[in-house]
Amino acid sequence: MFKTIAIGCDHAAVEYKEKLRAYLQEQGYTVLNMGTDTTDACDYPIYANKVCDKVTSKEADCGILICGTGIGMSMAANKHKGIRAAVCGDLKSSEFTRLHNDANVLCMGARIISYELCEQITKKFLETDFMGGKHKVRIDMFED
Q1: pLDDT (0 to 100) of residue 1
Q2: What's this model's pTM, rounded to 2 decimal places?
Q3: Using CB atoms within 10 A of its CB, is residue 142 exposed (0-12), middle (13-18) or buried (19+)?
Q4: Per-residue DSSP letters for 17-76?
Q5: 115-129: per-residue pLDDT in tens?
Q6: How far apart are the first and last CA of the chain?
Q7: Catalytic residue among 9, 52, 62, 67, which?
Q8: What is the rounded distance in angstroms from the CA atom of residue 89 to the CA atom of residue 124?
């Protein structure tokens, strides 16, 4: 299961990232802060790349990316071989992206969901195991 999490954000989500980082550390996770740490305008692909590099190098078990909508971060993250990033705005999506898609990067939008929901989605993502079986066959199809 996940123990080490790389987390990153853009300027739109610094507050969410910091609160979520503290929450995850309280829950016993090791959290690698990949930035940004200010609300100065920045380019989200830089932080998506930093998080994905930690996941693909196995320095982190999974990643969390937060921007205004989660969409840009997910698009940048999914350019990396071995990354399966999903934007989640509800608990069911968070559960099923792990169960069926073995997502290893969770993306969320600070301008879309409340911080409380962000925390709940993260908890569900981290606690849900991949089912494998026929879903593994499907994952292998797009990983190759």
Answers
A1: 81
A2: 0.97
A3: exposed
A4: HHHHHHHHHHTT-EEEE----S-S---HHHHHHHHHHHHHTTSSSEEEEEESSSHHHHHH
A5: 999 999 999 999 999
A6: 24
A7: 67
A8: 12
Cα–Cα distance measured from residue 34 to residue 30, given in angstroms and rounded to the nearest whole number: 13
Q: Is 81 exposed, middle or buried (0-12, 13-18, 19+ CB in 10 A)?
A: exposed
CB of 83 closer than 8 Å to CB of 77: yes
62 is a catalytic site residue:
no
67 carries an active-site annotation: yes
Q: Residue 56 class from Cβ within 10 Å (0-12 exposed, 13-18 middle, 19+ buried)? A: middle
Nearest alpha-carbon partner for 33 in 82, 20, 117: 20
Q: Does the pLDDT of residue 34 top 80, yes or no?
A: yes
- The helix-helix angle for 115-127 and 91-99 (nearest 10°) equals 20
Residue 3 near residue 29, CB atoms below 8 Å: yes
* 106, 77 contact by CB (below 8 A): no
Sheet holding 30-33, edge to edge: 30-33, 4-9, 62-67, 105-109, 85-87
Assigned token pair, 43: 């380019």
